Amino acid sequence: MTGLELVDRDDDGVDRAFRADVLAGLSQDQKAIPARWFYDELGSELFEDITVQPEYYPTRAETEILDRCASEFADAIGAGQAVVEFGSGSSVKTPLLLRAIQPAAYVPLDISGDFLRAAAADLSAKFPGLPVHPVEADFMRRVELPAEIGALPKLGFFPGSTIGNMVAPTAVDLLRNMGQTLGTGSMLLIGMDLVKDAAILEAAYDDAAGVTAAFNLNLAHRVNGELGGTIPVDQLRHVARWNDDFARIEMHLEAQCDITFEVAGQPLTMVEGETIHTENSHKFTARSANMLLLCGGWTPLKRWTDTEDRFSLILAQS
Ligand code: AVJ
Question: I need a surface site. Which of 50, 123, 143, 260 has the fewest CB within 10 A?
Fold first, then answer.
């Protein structure tokens, strides 16, 4: 098994899906590139760096909940579960959960074989007796789980408020597919970031050290490097703005003057002030979170928040 199996490349080694997404996105009136393309190697490193910036509270808030509420998770979930993590993180969150609930098996699921093997090795070292069954798959789709965990009760784990990157129809599709993957009666523990003061949110997505700006601009560098692009990255500016109507932080790359460039042979222009929309990060209330889960076929059972009410972890049942 190589780390490249799920990536379809042309003869020049270009990721076909990346090129198709970028060309389609840049031909729209509101230019856009899907946020999933942030995470090349440098992008993943920059994201890890974002999570330790003082303004970026979600990772600390969610970790605090997992740490502080461990015994409540144990009571609500019970031991002996097969924990299926959607997108195997390199995070400290997974060990906190596993220590709290004493599962019977751990199934990290990731589209990147490299991340997956690293995460599986890391977890096996920390939990020597725990069976670990990594699955290389796109968690946006329904996934066939390993036969070894067939008889065990299932707990899906989807931390990080990654669901917030999706518009509602996509989020609902994912939740339904998770229900299909895990089966009727299974549980899901999902992280969802909360609506709060716009200034706090905008700072979290525009840290003073400029790490989030670098993360956003890296996407333009990636287009140039991988798709033969000539985007003048120096003339783009990172923008993070709260969209109150849609309850989401939006990240954009804004042209600071009129620019023309090329991507994969396509000529493109941006006028001063025009943007490429690169990410949505939806924020939830207790009710909007419940509504989304219900639309996706999950009944919320219990909800935890950090001591400052910034972030929520919700346990739901299918
Ligand atoms: C990985 C989706 C949780 O939306 O907060 C962080 C990604 N983007 N800073 C988020 C991100 C800019 C992050 N998630």
Answer: 260
